Every structure is written in C-alpha cells, then in structure tokens.
Amino acid sequence: MPATPDSVILLQNAAGQVSAEPAGYLRLRWGGQPRVFADTCAMFTTAAQALHQRGWSRILVDQTVMQPFTSREQLWISQEWLPKAVQESGYRFGAVIVAANVLTRLATTFVTSTPELPLRYRSFGTEEEALAWLLQQPA
C-alpha cells in the first residue's frame, strides 16, 4: 500500500523512502535494489531527526522487498543509531512488515534484539496488521 496522499516525503534515495504520515508516525519503505552504506545511514538519520522534531515515537518499517542489511549496517544500526534514536529522538515503537527473504529477516532480528532499550518491535505479514498495532501505541 502506498503512503497516504497527505504523506510528506522527507527523503528518497537508492535505499528507499522516509515519509511523515498525518496519523503521527514515520514510514520507512526499503527498496529492493542494492544500496550503499551512506544511503542506509541517511534513511535512519532522517528518521531520527524527524522523530525528534515532531515529538513522535512510532515507525512503520516496510521491508517486503529489502535486501539484507550488511554486517557494517547491522553494527552501525545496533550500536550507534538505535541507542541514540531511543535516547535522543524518542523512538519507542517499530512495526516491521517482514521481507520474504529469510536473510533479511535474520539481519533485522539481529538489529532489533535490544533488551536494554525501552523499545518495542513487532513483526507483521501485512501493512494492515502492522499499522493497526502501531496506531494503538502512544504517539
């Protein structure tokens, strides 16, 4: 399902697209083409800045066609971006629409296994299920 007509596109690059949704959450839609580390970093950095600026806490992550995170991406996300996004930007809830690619799902599991952070992730097979759960979480 495409972003809503009232979505504000914050970033679009080879990795995907980040948009702000009127219902008070961010949407990260990952593309299926190869990407470079800088594009991945730009997606996540844009998301953290947008959460902070808007005072939001929720992200809908569409990974249905995404290629797996590289080892470098996994380490940067889990050790640098994620702790900062939680502590400085208020990130608390992530609804992930899972990829068909099992390697992508495994890489995502690695970066979202964060018991020490006040962050809750749930994985879903469809956008409708993911969005229904995400919208029940505090903005």
Explained architecture:
It is a single chain. The chain has 139 residues and is of the alpha/beta class. It contains four helices and six strands. It has helices spanning 37-54, 71-89, 102-112, 127-134, and strands spanning 8-12, 16-21, 25-30, 58-62, 93-97, 120-124. A six-stranded mixed β-sheet has the order 1-2-3-4-5-6, with helices on both faces. Strand 3 (25-30), helix 1 (37-54) and strand 4 form a beta-alpha-beta unit. Helix 1 runs parallel beside helix 2 (71-89) and helix 2 packs across helix 3. The longest helix has 19 residues, at 71-89. The radius of gyration is 13 Å and the shape is globular. The model has no long low-confidence stretch (mean pLDDT 89).
Average pLDDT number: 89
> Number of helix segments?
4
User: Which shape, going by the Cα principal axes?
Assistant: globular
The fraction of residues assigned to DSSP E strands is: 15-25%
What is the element string, with H for helices and E for strands?
EEEHEHEHEH
Structure classification: alpha/beta
Give the C-alpha Rg: 13 Å
Q: How many DSSP E strands?
A: 6
**Could you list the spans in which at least 5 consecutive residues all have pLDDT below 50?**
none
Largest sheet: 6 strands, mixed
Task: Give the helix proportion (percent range).
Answer: 40-55%
End-to-end CA span: 22 Å
The largest beta-sheet arranges its strands as 1-2-3-4-5-6
Question: Short description, anyone?
Answer:
The chain is an alpha/beta fold. It is 40% helix and 23% strand.
